[in-house]
């Protein structure tokens, strides 16, 4: 257990533009009832701006919450699968927007498990004395990856960012335990094809990316892996389910969250979920949920949180977080919403038309993946 590591600030940033299930039904063979019954999602946010823009706002809110400036931070870790650019890192671009200089920063990609991977690393670095304050940001623009002709995956994901500021503090009474794991046998279960340096860019390719998703295997492995990680971290912290005040799982699917909570023996009032509003925001889902849980007073100073995540790769992780005895925002958030002129449907419509033209040109060979069980 990292007894001298505590939470100092938190913040989030969400695009104003919403894409509802009814919006999706305008171009996909689906409806609100079908999507909500299988995923727990009602809407998701769509960003017109790159990841660094959302990340910088979430980070600014976390710093404002703590009453600190960016130059009082030692390290910034940006967890994302959708960076603005591969070179330079999206973390560097985020830092530039924050006005930071001479501060270490890097991107971390562990898919949906990324934020808890970063928390594991940050807590270790702080406890070791290598750094005093580390700003963790999870930010994703997953709408950019979507093939809008694929119902199975395009209903699942949304955009957004969240940030937590961790620091060394021997007086505040906070503590962190973390556990990370992986199973590379899941490499093909969640995959964006034809993207990255492993792809032959000289081959004629589709103008659309394909997001492959083996829903049945993901469901099974997510439940078992998050349970394994949760039990590991609870054992490290010497706590059991009766001592937890709130459970926040990665917001991927409402049914996965419910199964994990049931197997851990947690009552509904100890489970936090916001998936209906945002969908799966990958590495951003945990920090966004933590921010909202604190803001809604679902968890208070001195209370205990259990966090779990599971993502492509497969990656999985858990964290036990005892909040400090002093838990208050120094100032109100600057802004948590990124204003945009267009609706979510308007933002994606050009991509929808492109993806559907390509899908029709490949009929009847094109097949939809089954990302959610019937």
| Contiguous uncertain segments of 5+ residues | 364-374
Spatial strand order of the main sheet: 5-4-6-7-1-15
Number of helices: 11
What is the top-level CATH class?
Alpha Beta
Q: What does the radius of gyration come to?
A: 20 Å
Quaternary form: single chain
Keywords: Acyltransferase, Cytoplasm, Fatty acid biosynthesis, Fatty acid metabolism, Lipid biosynthesis, Lipid metabolism, Multifunctional enzyme, Transferase
Pfam family, one: ACP_syn_III_C
Protein name: Ketoacyl-ACP synthase III
Family: Belongs to the thiolase-like superfamily. FabH family.
Keyword list:
22% strand; alpha/beta; five-stranded mixed beta sheet; Peroxisomal Thiolase, Chain A, domain 1; 374 residues
Give your account of this protein's structure.
It is a single chain. By secondary structure, this protein is of the alpha/beta class. It has one domain: 3-Layer(aba) Sandwich (Peroxisomal Thiolase, Chain A, domain 1), CATH 3.40.47.10. 33% of the residues lie in helices and 22% in strands. The protein has eleven helices and 15 strands. The chain has helices at 21-24, 32-39, 51-66, 90-98, 114-128, 151-154, 215-237, 254-264, 275-278, 285-295, 344-361; strands at 5-15, 18-20, 43-45, 75-79, 104-108, 133-141, 159-168, 175-182, 190-192, 211-213, 246-249, 271-272, 304-311, 315-322, 337-338. The strands form four sheets. It has a six-stranded mixed β-sheet with strand order 5-4-6-7-1-15, with helices on both faces. The chain has a five-stranded mixed β-sheet with strand order 8-14-13-11-12, with helices on both faces. Strands 2-3 form a two-stranded antiparallel sheet. Helix 3 crosses helix 4 and helix 7 runs parallel beside helix 8 (254-264). The protein is globular. The relative contact order is 0.21.
């Amino acid at each position: 257990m990292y007894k001298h590591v505590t939470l100092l600030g938190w913040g989030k940033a969400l695009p104003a533009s919403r894409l509802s299930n009814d919006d999706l039904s305008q171009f996909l063979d689906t409806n609100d009832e079908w999507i909500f019954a299988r995923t727990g999602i009602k809407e998701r946010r769509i960003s017109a701006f790159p990841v660094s823009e959302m990340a910088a706002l979430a980070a600014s809110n976390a710093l404002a919450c703590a009453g600190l400036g960016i130059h009082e931070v030692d390290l910034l870790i940006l967890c994302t699968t959708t960076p603005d650019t591969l070179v330079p890192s999206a973390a560097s671009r985020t830092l530039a927007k924050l006005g930071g200089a001479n501060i270490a920063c890097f991107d971390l990609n562990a898919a949906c498990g990324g934020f808890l991977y970063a928390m594991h690393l940050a807590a270790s670095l702080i406890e070791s004395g290598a750094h005093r304050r580390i700003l963790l940001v999870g930010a994703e623009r997953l709408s950019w990856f979507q093939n809008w002709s694929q119902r199975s995956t395009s209903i699942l994901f949304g955009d957004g960012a969240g940030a937590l500021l961790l620091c060394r503090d021997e007086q505040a009474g906070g503590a962190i335990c973390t556990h990370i794991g992986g199973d590379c046998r899941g490499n093909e279960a969640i995959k964006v094809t034809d993207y990255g340096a492993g792809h032959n860019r000289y081959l004629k390719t589709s103008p659309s990316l394909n997001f492959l998703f083996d829903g049945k295997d993901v469901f099974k492995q997510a439940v078992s892996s998050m349970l394994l990680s949760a039990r590991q971290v609870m054992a490290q912290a010497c706590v059991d389910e009766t001592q937890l005040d709130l459970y926040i799982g990665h917001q991927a699917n409402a049914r996965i969250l419910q199964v994990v909570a049931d197997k851990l023996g947690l009552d509904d009032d100890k489970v936090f979920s916001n998936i209906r509003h945002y969908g799966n925001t990958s590495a951003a889902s945990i920090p966004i949920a933590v921010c909202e849980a604190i803001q809604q007073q679902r968890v208070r100073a001195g209370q205990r949180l259990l966090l779990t995540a599971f993502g492509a790769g497969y990656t999985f992780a858990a964290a036990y977080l005892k909040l400090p005895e002093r838990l208050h925002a120094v100032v109100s958030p600057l802004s948590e919403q990124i204003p945009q002129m267009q609706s979510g449907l308007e933002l994606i419509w050009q991509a929808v038309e492109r993806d559907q033209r390509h899908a029709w040109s490949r009929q009847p060979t094109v097949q939809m993946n089954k990302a959610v069980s019937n």
